[in-house]
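HUMAN: You are asked to prepare a plain-text protein record giving the amino acid sequence and the backbone structure tokens, both parts labelled.

ASSISTANT:
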Amino acid sequence: MSSWNAQMRWTVGLTLVTVGALVVLAVPALAGPLSPDATFSGDGRSRAGDWNLGYQSLGEKAGLTYTAGIELGAGSGENSLIVAKYGPAGDQQTTNSRLLNCWSTPVSTNVLIDDSGNVFVVGFNQNGLPGHGFVAAYDANLTPRADYADESATGCGHGTATITGVARVDSFDLEQITDASFDVDGGIVMVGRIYNDVVVVRITPDGFVDTTFGVNGLMRLRQPDTRERPATIAVDSQGRITVAATTEIPGYAARAFVARFTPDGALDETFGDNGLRSIGAFGTVSLAHGVTASDRIVVARADYSRVLVHMLTPDGALDDAFGAGSPVKRKCDETRRQATLRDLVLRSTGGRAITVFMHCRSTRSPSMVLGLRSSGMPATGFGDTGVRHLRSTDSVRDAATTDASKYLYLAGGWLYRIGT
């Protein structure tokens, strides 16, 4: 065990979690701004319309795009989860808005789409209601799936409504869900936190908490006298679950680490140092990660005014073939602007294996996109630095692409489609 991990004295408890990942970075752009695809919704973007907080998450498959967000209700606490489907031309084909809980706001973290076209929106209910994680399941036309999970009821003083197709994670005092991913068996793993601990939960393909995962359905990573904050989750080709998170030790800034778990929710001690791998020095402010088709792990972290991208081998060692043995580093254009990492996406085709999204904290700074090859070199079309800007100052909240897609989809106040 390394000196850092020995100092941390990690212990493992019981908890369930799901994660996904994407990486973005910023520097002076030499390749010009990215332009939205003009064939998508007329000018390359679609407005969130009456969605009060814009798009929070999105997913794409076979040219269809699904977004999720919040629709504020007229009554106090009557805020609904709203999901929309867009066709290949950017036309909004259908929406579904429904109230999941009273006196809380549904925050969506992921939109996952399976090979049959079923749509799963993962998130949690905000506003002081711990334990209310959810997975809302729909068919391809956004009709709630009656065969997923048990029926439940909700009501806000206007009668009681039956809710179908929603799996609820309410047996643990979850404070937040930060990411989710499909596993190799068609279930969903999600990562979040309980107090200062990172937790992972698995939902079965039919919509129930998997009580065989971890301990009674929960994988819990606990460290005394520190505060852990989960970021993203991903699943490799062998079903192993990786989680990227930060830890804060008294007297130090946050430090990034990656933990790996077996498919049944035990800490995988063959990875890194007894299941954990610290990343870089202290000072990480935001983080994302993903797993490649060859089970290498890409980690992007924001360190004040810059973003650093690392590559790990399947056993948790630094990959010397990436970036000439050093992390790829990019800084914000403007001095004293703090970098915020938004998302990271991976794909195995198209000359751009890694895409990282970053925003510098300035009203004048557009979001920036870093495109890299699997070697760490700039991707085709991204100039000598690998960085391009979005034309708009709209901040990216989520991104999606698939190996079969020609496009990159970005969600924020608008839904963008960028040709790649």
